[in-house]
Predict the 3D structure of the following.
Amino acid sequence: MAKMNLRQTIADLLKAHPNERFTARQIAEWIFANQREACEEKRKNSQQDLSDDAAFLWQLVAEIGSNRPVIQKRWPQIRTTEGRPRQYYWTAASEAAEVAEVEKQAQANKPGKLSEHDLYPLLCRYLHGDLKLYPKRIDEKRATNRHGPNGNKWLFPDLVALENLGEDWDQEIRACVQQAGAQRARLWSFEVKLLINRANVRETWFQAVSNSSWANLGYLVAADIQESAMKELRLLGASYGIGLIRLDTGAPSESEILIPARERSEIDWDACNRLAVENSDFREFVSWVRQFHQTDSAQVGKWDIPEAVDF
């Protein structure tokens, strides 16, 4: 009687049908239909009662799933989809190229698709309406210097914000803190993306690290965060202190902080000086922060606050 080599059988099936996708159930049914002798030998040697065909198929499905990590390590060309039920397929494309193509198709097929710039006012709505921050857009195109191809994307954040720590304080407390020279504001920095997936997770994260190193709190924000990237994002968050926000484009108030940022007690004013010298938007932001400390009012700045939001 023939003995079944399940891993090799799965690899041979997928390789013979490149780019065609199969669920574990479909693979199990193909094996049962095409390798009946090996299946009967496996059924006979099993310690479980697999006399019923349905029970045998379910056992095959379970073994396919449990063998998936080993199969994909041995045959890197075998990939699986992220949704449920998971689908298995063979492809010669690199993982980065494949994910980029999936992202491109998803955006192309999405009606009324958003651009990254469309996310900025939505994020401002969430920051001001829910977190009570005073946000400002920083346009990297206003930089006086260019640091090579796409160099400025590693220097300037997409948005910055001021948090008035004494917004709800009693007037006497606010005056006391002002006289004592204690901290009265936190400065936030945001790097915004449409999508974070396993292909771009590290690049987007370290861009946020680079652009937010000057601030008390730095965040990476995305409208679409694929589950395949979350493990890496949590590890990076623990190591570098950058936070993560999922932006709900349909209802910004439903956005959520998935990973809280780790606060830095001091502002890096040397880094701020470089940003202010090279970008008029950032220099204006620093000016509004200065006026806030002078007047104890954030209303001195023309913040990017949607008119519909007021508190």
Q: What stands out?
A: The first helix runs from residue 6 to 16.
